[in-house]
Amino acid sequence: MRQFFSALPFLILAIAVAGCASHDEQQAQQAEAAAVKAQHAAEQAEKSAADAQAAADKATEAANRATKAVQEATVEINRVADHLDQMQRDREAAHGRRLSHVTKASRKAAANKAAVASGSPAAAPSSSAR
Q1: H/E segment holding residue 52
Q2: Which residue from 130, 112, 129 is spatially nearest to 121, judged by alpha carbons?
Q3: Residue 125 phi, psi dihedral angles, 5° rounding
Q4: Within 10 Å of residue 101's Cβ, how many Cβ atoms?
Q5: What is the per-residue pLDDT for 50?
């Protein structure tokens, strides 16, 4: 029995070493599985980043097209506004000539009327009053 007790520490040590080896192997397998998961996650993240970059490029292209369209619309709006301003100036100028012509004729008619009322012979209406 004495031999058994003297061999017992060795047996315990062997079991402990076997248990540690099994535990280390289990940890190694877990670490390997975690590394595989991390690699997969990194690949997925890289793919997502590439997709995001492609979407950002498309959005930038669309924004550039929209900016160009706004610039072209602004040029056209300014052209039309300038044309309308010119038409307004032309209409005011034409109206101003008519108004001065009408004003001139009405002043002359009023002067002739006043002269006739005062009895002045030089104020007789004439056909050149227009």
Answers
A1: helix 2-118
A2: 112
A3: -65, 140
A4: 11
A5: 97
| Longest distance between any two alpha carbons in the chain, whole Å | 169
CB 112 within 8 A of CB 123: yes
**29-33, 36-40, 75-79, range with greatest mean pLDDT:** 75-79
Going by the DSSP 8-state scheme, the letter that residue 119 receives in this structure is: T
Distance CA 13, CA 19 (A): 10
What's the sign of the alpha-carbon dihedral 22, 24, 30, 35?
negative
pLDDT one-digit tens code per residue, 35-73: 999 999 999 999 999 999 999 999 999 999 999 999 999
The DSSP code for 65 is H
Across the chain, mean pLDDT equals 80
Contacts of 107 (CB under 8 A, 6+ apart): none
Model confidence, pTM = 0.45
* Whole-number Å distance between alpha carbons of 77 and 87: 15
Contact of 105 with 126, CB cutoff 8 Å: no
Tokens encoding 98: 């008519």
